[in-house]
Amino acid sequence: GIALRRCSLGGCAVKLRHTVAIAACLAVLAPAADAGRKLQAPATLADLAQRRIEVHSGVPAKADAAQAAVSYEDFLRIEDADPALRAQALRRLGDLRLAEAESFAARDDAAPQSRAAAVQAVSAYRALLAEQPGYAGADAVLYQLARALEFSGDAEGALVELDQLVARYPRSSHFAEAEFRRGEAFFSARRYADAEGAYAAVLASGAPTEFAEQARYKYAWSLFKQNRDEESSAAFLALLDTLLVVPGNARPRSDLTRAQRELADDAMRALAITFAATDGPPALQAAIARHGPAV
After folding, report:
1. Do residues 21 and 15 make contact, with C-beta atoms less than 8 angstroms apart?
2. Half-sphere exposure of 105 (CA within 13 A, CB side)
3. Quick check: 271 and 53 in contact, CB under 8 A?
4. Neighbours of 134 (CB within 10 A)
5. How far is residue 123's CA from residue 67's CA, in Å, rounded to a whole number?
6. pLDDT one-digit tens code per residue, 42-80
7. DSSP of 77-116, one letter per residue?
8. Which of the chain's ends, N or C, has fewer CB atoms near its CB within 10 Å?
């Protein structure tokens, strides 16, 4: 474990048991960083079973997915098909094309194919939402639609769909991730006040630990970018509490994942910048007093 030490700052000893002290000591000591078709009777998906598809063991699995997508597209060309089955086919087609877009995106030489597949996914999801306004899984479709739009290169359109999702479905299982992604989009666009609100919504939702840690980290940076030093320092210290303190003790650094160590180190650098730009130790002591001991 981490041995408890004492760090003297301006004549005041602070125990490392409190994350505040860990951050404070390192912050002060660290150098500031730079900132189809017609049939006689309504068609069903069962009609697809009549199609004969040859299976070749040497063909990659993604080819099977592509063939499945073509089969759904064939079904969707059938006139007078059952609406519920059309909805299923559109959802599945969108998911298959989105997966295809992701697969192509992982390759350095397949950006056009990725965008083309993403555009097809967008078309399927939008058709589903248009044909089925009361679709039970509309929140999931909006989430997938936003992802497809991102792969197609339409970041602004993706944000519009995420806005709809969080506004209309606050209890969706996709809510926290949608808010986090909104925060990321706002942060990248330097819309730090909007990013702050989105990250705060993630934290208020009680999201899983990984999302909470990342959201708290970016929330603190959103405040920092707005030059709200007191609030950003408190947010960074709260993040360090969650990372470096377990009930009654400092958490061994060896227990942290690499990602958690990077978050902690970056938070300390941000605190170093803040305290170096203000009154140094007095500002540090004031931050400690405001924050209080780690819980």
Report:
1. yes
2. 17
3. no
4. 5
5. 18
6. 555 455 445 554 444 444 445 688 899 999 999 999 999
7. TSTT--HHHHHHHHHHHHHHHHHHHHHHHTSTT-HHHHHH
8. C
